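Ticket #253: bound-state structure for S-adenosylmethionine.
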Amino acid sequence: MRSRTLRYLALGVLLLSVSAAAVLTLDAFRPLRFRWASKLILANRQRVVDAFAILFHAEGDRTYNNLRWLGTPLQKNPMDLWIYQEMLYEVKPDVVVECGTYKGGTAYYLARLMDLLDKGRVLTVDIEKHPNLPQHPRITYLLGSSTAPEIVGQVRSSIKPGETVLVLLDSDHSMKHVLDELRLYHGLVTAGSYLVVEDTHFNGHPILPKFGPGPMEAVEQFLKENQDFRIDPAREKLMFTFNPRGYLVKRTS
Ligand SMILES: C[S@@+](CC[C@H](N)C(=O)[O-])C[C@H]1O[C@@H](n2cnc3c(N)ncnc32)[C@H](O)[C@@H]1O
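RESOLUTION: The complex was predicted; output attached.
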């Protein structure tokens, strides 16, 4: 009696395994597999995006660290560059201030877009002078720390009254430095324009969980101190961004 039950059980397990193998491998079940996978992905939207962000960062040497704009290196997520293009078109700033020039790729990208818009210039600051920075009449390079009084003074004096200003923070990513930058530069941003805090994905949001307090934590503190700005989730519409909760728009009223 017991051995017959065991035989039925074994047969049941065998049938189940064969059916599962068929569903998982046969072409006829491909639409079913696709439907299941889609449901699973859509039910775990943020996990999927985070998993891709972690992969993209882990493979940095072939992804964000291996990008060029018209030959000039830049460290960006191409999705964010697309969003910058849209922001530039909508805001049409007279001046973009970039903290953290690196090799000048983003400044050059913005300058070439400004050529198309026939408006705007870029002031870009770095503590280090990288060789072979792209030369363009719309770009001014400033050498020094973004929080040094003389640099902040040079940036302020380069902006004329009434000009529209957009600011990008992408230099030292420690919370202290970013918060200092936020406090020093937010006053330059004009109503309806943006203060973008880059790399808010550090410190486990979702990459580099051991980074320590960084740009995201600086944003949280800044928004407690300042009601003139709000996070604009519309700029995260492409889901995968280096700047989650980092697109801060200045309120118009
Ligand atoms: C992530 S890279 C900038 C990438 C660049 N924005 C791009 O899109 O290609 C950071 C840059 O910030 C610079 N940096 C670090 N500390 C700084 C500071 N206190 N002030 C200004 N720049 C700083 C570094 O030298 C480095 O070139």
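RESOLUTION NOTES: The mean pLDDT is 97.
TICKET STATUS: resolved
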